[in-house]
Amino acid sequence: MTAAMSPASRGPIDEDVQELARTWSRPPGFWGWLTTTEHKSIAKRYIITAFTFFLLGGLEAATMRLQLGRPENSVVGPDLYNQLFTMHGTTMMFLFAVPVMIAMGLYFVPLMLGTRNVAFPRLNAFGYYTYLIGGAFLYISFFCNTGPDAGWFNYVPLSGPMFSPGKRIDVWAQTITFTEIAALVGAVEIIVTTFKHRAPGMSLNRIPLFVWAMVVMSFAIIFAMPAVATDSLFLALDRSIDTHIFNPAEGGDALLWQHMFWFFGHPEVYIIFIPALGMVSSIVATFTQRQVFGYTAMVLSLIATGFISFGLWVHHMFAEPIPVLGESFFTAASTMIAIPSGVQIFCWIATVWTGRPRFQTPLLFVLGFFVVFIIGGMTGVMVASVPFDLQATDTYFVVAHLHYVLIGGGVFPLFGAFYYWFPKITGRLLSERLGRWQFWLFFVGMHVTFFPMHTLGFHGMPRRIYTYLAVTGWGPLNLVASIGAVIIFVSVVLFLVNVAKSWRGGAVAGPNPWHGDTLEWATTSPPQSYNFARIPVVVGRGGLWETPDEQPVVGGLRTDTREVLLTTLLDAEPESVHELPTDSIWPFLLALCMGITFISSIFAPWGALVGLGLGFLPALGWAWPTKPPQPERISPERAS
Amino acid sequence: MNSFCLVMAALAQPLPWIGEHSALDPSGTASKHVASLWWAMFWTSLVVYVIVMIALGYAAFRRRTNAPADATSSERLTPAPRSVHLTVGIATGVTVLILFIVVVTDFFTARAIATPATGAVHIKIIARQWWWYAVYSGDTVPQQQLSVANEIHVPVGKPIVFTLTSRDVIHSFWVPNLNGKTDAVPGYESNAWFRADTPGVYRGQCAEFCGLEHAKMAFTIVAESEEQYNKWYQAQLAPAVPTTDSLRSQGERVFMTGTCSSCHAIRGTGAGGTLGPELTHLASQRTIAAGTLQNTPDNLARWILDAQRIKPGAAMPSQELSSRDLNVLVAYLEGLR
Questions:
Q1: Is the omega angle on the peptide bond into residue A313 within 30 degrees of 0, that is, cis?
Q2: Which of A160, A177, B296, B324 has minimal Cβ neighbours within 10 Å of its Cβ?
C-alpha cells in the first residue's frame, strides 16, 4: 500500500482531474438534474425538501397554538384541528426528522469515508423520489381537505373503516408506505457504503463517530420500519378489501395495531436521536479542538442505545389492558436506556473539559442540546414508571416531555450541524451574528412554549383536544405557551434569512474553516462531483489531525469510468475496484410508477395491479445491461 | 412544595361545577402514592440536573478561547488524564445506582396500588363517542343495578372497582385527583380502581384521542359520605316523578311526540331510546353534554337548540323548536330531579 501513497503536495495531474470531472459530473440542464445519481445533489434536495416539511409542520403547530391560546377559541374547528395535529406529527416524524437525518448521512457519510458516491447511486435517487412523491401526496390531500385526522399514531378502531369513512386514513397509510421505502433505501445505502467503501486504513475502530451513529440508525431503520409498513398495509387491507385484522367485532384485535406501531414508533425516536448524537460528537470535537473522549465507550453506547430502543415499546401502552408483569420488563428497559445516554453525556463533558471550547454558533446549539435534552431525558425516566406514567400519559406532560426530547435531542443538534456543515455544502459561512440571535430566540422560545406544558399535564389537560373550558383554569399557561411559539417562529425566520443571505453573500469558507478532523474537510467546499481527486488514506482515529502537514492519498483508480475502491470490512484494506453505474432516468420513472400504484390502490384495490404492470417497464430499463459486465479488478496494491 | 407550583395551582383553581382536576393535589389512595413518587423523582432529577449543568458550565468556561483554531494544535490527540477517566467512570456508576433505586421505588409504588381492598363497590363503565355510561353492577338483583351517565357518585373511604369497555373506539378513563388512566378498548375488559379519601367533586376526562369531540368528553365523580351516597343511589333508582302542573305536562308532550324520546329514555314514561344518555334524573346532574356545560336552564335550552354548534359532530342534533315549545320542554326537564 505504501507504494501507492503519494504526498498531497505533488497533487494529481491536471488532465486526470479534468477527466474525473467529465466522468462524474451530470449532463447539463433539466435532464441532467432529473437523472443525476450524485449523492450530494440528492442529499441536498433531501435536506431542502425535509426542511420545507419542517416549516409546514411548524406552521401547523403555530395554528394549533393560536387556537389553544385562549379557552373556547374558534380559530379552527375540531375537524381541522384533528387534521392539523395529525399532519403535524406525521410531518415532523415521517417527512422531516427521519428524512433529514438520512439526508445528512447520505451527504456526509461518503465524504467522511473518503469515497466518491454511495454504494448504490441509482437506488439512492429512487429513494429520494419515493419520499418526495409520498410527501407531496400527503400535502396535496391535506389541501383538498382529505388530510388524515386520527393522529400520527392512528389507533384502530378509530382509524378503521367503521369510524373513519372517506379517504383520509388511506392517505396516511400510503404516505407511510412511501416514506418507509425511502428510509429503508437510505439505511441500506449508509450501511453498505460504510462497510465496503471506506478509505484505505479506516479500520472499524477509526470510523468517525458521526458515521457510527448513522450506521446504528440505519440498522434500527431496517429492523423497525417493516413493522409499521406491515401495520399500515394491514390497515389498508381492512379499509379497502374488508379484512378484519383489527376489528374486534369479527375476531380481530385492536391492540395488535398498537404493538406493531410502537415496535416501530419507539425505535423511531432513537432513529432521530442517534444521528443527532453523531452530529454532537462532530461539533464537540471541532469546537474544542479535541478528540472526543472515550471512543470505544461512545461507539458501544450508540450500539446499546439502538439495541435497547427495541425493548421499550410497551411503555406507550401502559394504560392498555396488558399484564402487569410484562409492563415491569418495559419499565426496567426504559430506565436502562438512560445509561448509554448518560455515558455519552459524561464523555462529551470530559471532552469539553480537556479541550479549548470556542463559543461559535454550532457549539452554542450543542450546549443548548445538553440543557434541553437532559430535562427531556429525566422526564423520560419518570414516565418509564408505570404508576407515574398512568397519570402523565396522554396529557400535556408528555407533550412537554416529547418536545424536550425531540427538539433538544434532534433539532438543536441539527441546527448546530447546519451551521457547522453549511460552509462545506455551499462554500460559504452562515452569519455568526444572526446565528447567535437565532440560537437564543430558539432556546428561550422552546422553554417558554414547552415548559408550562408539564404543569398543564398535572392539572388534567389531555393531549389532542381542540379546545378547553375557561373554568378548567388552563388558559393562562396555554397563553404563555402560545407566546413561546411566536418566539420560535421568529427564530426560524431568522434562520431562513441567514441562509438566504449567506448562500450567495456569506464569507468564503475554504476547504476547512473550523479545522475539523474528519475527511469531508480534506476536499474543496463545496466538494467536486468526484469528492476527492485522490482517495485519502487514513493513518489513525484522529483523521486529518493525524497528518496536519500532508494528507497521504492512494492512486490507481481509473478516471474515465466511475470507479471506486472497495475495502475490507474490518481493516479497510484495499480489496477490489468497483465501477458504479452512470446517471439514469429509470429510478425516477420507477418511483413515479410506484407512486401511481400506491395512490391508485386507495381508490380501487386492483389499482395496485395496474401500477405493478406499469412499473415493470422502468424496472426492466433499470436492469438492462448497457455493456458487457467487466470482471472486478483486483486493486493495484493487492496485485503488486 | 415549591413556590412555582403553588402559583400554578392557584392559576388552575377550578370553579366548583366542573370539579377538581389536579394530579398534584391527590384525594385518593392511589394518586397520593403517585404524587409522592413524582416528588421523589422530581427532587432526585433536580439535584442530578444541577450537578451535570455545573460540570458542563465549568468545563465550557474554564478554558474557553476566542482565538481561531490553529491548524496544528498539539493538544488534539493527547490522551486525557487518568482523573478524567476516573470521574467519568464514577459518574456512570452513580447514574446506574440512581436509576436502580428509581426502578425499585417504581415497583414498590406499583405494588402498593395494584389491588384494592375487599368490600369494593363495582361499577361497569361503557365509554362511547363522546360520553360515559356507568352501571353499578355490584347488586345481584338487576332492578337494584343503577345506570347513570357522565356523573358517578361514590362513597368516600371505600374502594371502587371499575370494569371498562368501549362501544366504539378506544377511550381512556382518567380522574387526576384519584388515579391514573385506564383505557377502555373495544373487545377487551380492563380494570381500574381508586379510593376517594376526601369528599369532593372531581373532574375526569377522556385521555385517549377518540375522534371529533375528544375534547368534550368529560365526566364528574362525586365522592360523598356513605349515607349521602345511599340516599343518592335510592333516589336515582326511582322512576321519574309524574308531571303535575300543566307547563310540565306540555313539556312532556313535546318530549314524547318530538324526536327526543327516540334517543333518550326516561324511566316511568314511554320514552325508551338508548342512543343518548338516560334523562330520568337529568336535573340532579351538575353538567350536560358530558361535562361541556353547567346544568342550568339557560344552558339546557342552548344545548337543545344548538347542540351541533356547542359540540359539533355529537349524536345530538340541533332542534328546531318554537320558543314556547322550548320553554315548556326545559321546564319539564328541569323537573326531572
A1: no
A2: B324
**Which chain B residue has its CA at the smallest distance from A377's CA?**
B45
Tell me if A78 and B313 make a contact (CB, 8 A cut-off). Answer: yes
DSSP B177: T
Q: Which of B49, B81, B88 is the closest to A378 by Cβ?
A: B49
Are residues B127 and B181 in contact, defined by beta-carbon separation less than 8 angstroms?
Answer: no
SS3 content of chain B, % helix, strand, coil (to 5): 40, 20, 40
Adjacent-strand bridge partners of A564: A578
Quote the pLDDT of residue A631: 60
A57: distance to nearest CA of chain B, Å? 20
- H and E: helices and strands count for chain B: 8, 12
Nearest to B96 among A158, A339, A381 (CB): A339
Residue indicated by cell numbers 415496535:
A263
Q: Is A81 helix (H, G, I), strand (E, B) or coil?
A: helix
Residue B258 confidence (pLDDT) above 50 = yes
| Residue of A395, A459, A474 to mutate for B, most B C-beta atoms under 10 A | A459
B127 membership: H or E segment, kind and range:
strand B121-128
State residue B71's pLDDT score.
Answer: 64
User: Rounded to a whole number, what is the distance in Å from the CA of A593 to chain B's nearest CA?
Assistant: 34
Distance in angstroms (rounded) separating the CA atoms of residues A569 and A566: 9
Judged by CB atoms closer than 8 Å, whether chains meet at B113 and A388 is answered as no
Assembly ipTM: 0.94
| Residues forming a β-bridge with B218 | B205
Give the containing element (helix H, strand E) for B174.
Answer: strand B171-175
Element spanning A639, H or E? helix A636-639
Q: Could you write out the DSSP letters of every residue in A43-55?
A: HHHHHHHHHHHHH
Amino acid in the structure at residue A439: F
Distance from C-alpha of B246 to C-alpha of A93, rounded to nearest angstrom: 62
Residues A399/A463, Cβ–Cβ less than 8 Å: yes
pLDDT, tens digit (0-9, with 9 covering 90-100), for B47-97: 999 999 999 999 999 989 888 777 666 788 889 999 999 999 999 999 999
The answer to whether B159 touches B117, Cβ cutoff 8 Å, is yes
Residue reference for cell 410506484 = A594
In 3D space, the residue among A396, A249, A389, A238 whose CA is nearest the CA of residue B169 turns out to be A249
DSSP string over A228-270 = HHHHHHHHHHHHHS---TT-GGGT--HHHHHHHHHHHHHHHHH
Q: Which of A97-111, A115-129, B6-20, B265-279 has the lowest mean pLDDT?
A: B6-20
Least CB-CB distance to A157: which of B48, B53, B169?
B169
Q: Tell me if A155 and B13 make a contact (CB, 8 A cut-off).
A: no
